[in-house]
Amino acid sequence: MKATNFRGSMVEIDPYKDDLFRKVIEQRKLNKADKALYYWLKILANSIYGFFVELIPENQTKNIPVNVFSGERAFSDFSDVLEKPGTWFFPPLASFITSAGRLLLAMTEACVSEKQGSYLFCDTDSLAIVSSEKGGSLGIPGGEGSRVLAWGEVQEIINRFVSLNPYDRKAVPGSILNHVDANYIDSDPKKEQRQLCGYSIAAKRYALYERVGDHDIKIVDPKAHGIGFLYPPKDSPKEWKEDVPLWIYEFWECIVRDALKLNPTSRSWIDVPQMMRLTVTTHNVLTMLRDWEVARPYNFLLLPMVDPTFGYAFHRQSSEKVLLVCPFSSKQDRWFGLECINIHSGKKYKMMDCNKAHDNIPYNVVFPSQFARLLSQYTDHPEAKSLAPDDTPCAADTKGLLKRAHVIAGEFRYIGKETDRKWEEGDEISLLEFAATEYGRTTRVVASEEIKGAIQDIGINKCARESGFDRKNFIRKLVRGVPVKRNSYNEFVGWLKGHKSQG
Fold first, then answer.
1. Whether the predicted pLDDT of 181 surpasses 80
2. In this structure, is the dihedral angle defined by the CA atoms of residues 73, 77, 79 and 84, taken in order, positive or negative?
3. Does the reported pTM lie above 0.85?
């Protein structure tokens, strides 16, 4: 290892003397005025723990033997995906980092509960405490016994965490907890604190806003979860400086104005079709689209969001695979009329606006879902991780202060690390037909090297004699790496553990 400098910074990091994570946080605080560097340091800090749990999936042409490790459980299986650990793979360290973050949130929540307070949402590293300048009662269903904390009480909670601050106090003074910038006028910590309001639909679906008089609102911090993967139905102005596109601010303004029964605002993008931008990067997709002129490596495409029940004018077989893509266009007003192609069959279709459809609709058209439908559906998303105020599962119309949902673990299922990321990224076509790798479901397995070694230590004949398993048709197969029935294998491993404990 050798010393290096941060991007755009004269600060040197010596891996033998310095704490990398601590330096990143300190430099982020000191370089807040440099928005590009500040944002880069934020991404770096948030991704450091990921180095230690990096698994690189490699697709195989056929199922191959693999060893699966999960906690204290280890077993053999077959899979067509081989997950290789990254260079810095060390899961215990990543677990400690994320667990410490959860512990800090739990401690903060406990402090809020001590004061009979509550919170709007709890995210990765933040808690949105329900508070106002002077405090008061919480007049919502399920809020009996809870209070709106005063700003001074929130500051008392922040001050309790001063002793946990591990950073250089010149760079990060005071507590490890702090108010986010959105709490201040114009999101400027040098200005006075303002009263924020919030509207939450479900986990990660929320927005912060402020009231402007009695009949207007201003969206301050909208979240893009569940909608950020879509290509913007309108372009943000050139001078737009926010990380989140303008249309998402307008999207949330429509939702909040409707909830508060304020006069609605019309939006030009309401009838634009929902589209996801994709990139052609995999060989199999190129092969499927080989005769289509626009399908070239690293070309952009658009994928229309089509309702599987009502979006197709053509007759679709129940077993028929349909994944439509069309040429990329940044001109939203030209999306209707674009030609689509089904990457599985090569058949081509036209997109049509369902609001302008007439009689005698041809069979080669599809009706993409429009943003008006997304707007109406987005709020009908029940919160699955909490209970309603009356202790029942949440429904789409549940309102009030939600309760903890107690979870009882049932069957353990072992899946690969890679998960469906299209709702966050939505940029690679192979993500659209993602299927999680699950282990322990195949009917036949191969013995691990540990089991083979244990058999050799005991002796094949003795294993067969004492375990009751056939020497030729089972024990020898284990030693040679020949697949055997999973149930029989698990039973033999159980006998082997018992034999070891007796020895």
1. yes
2. positive
3. no
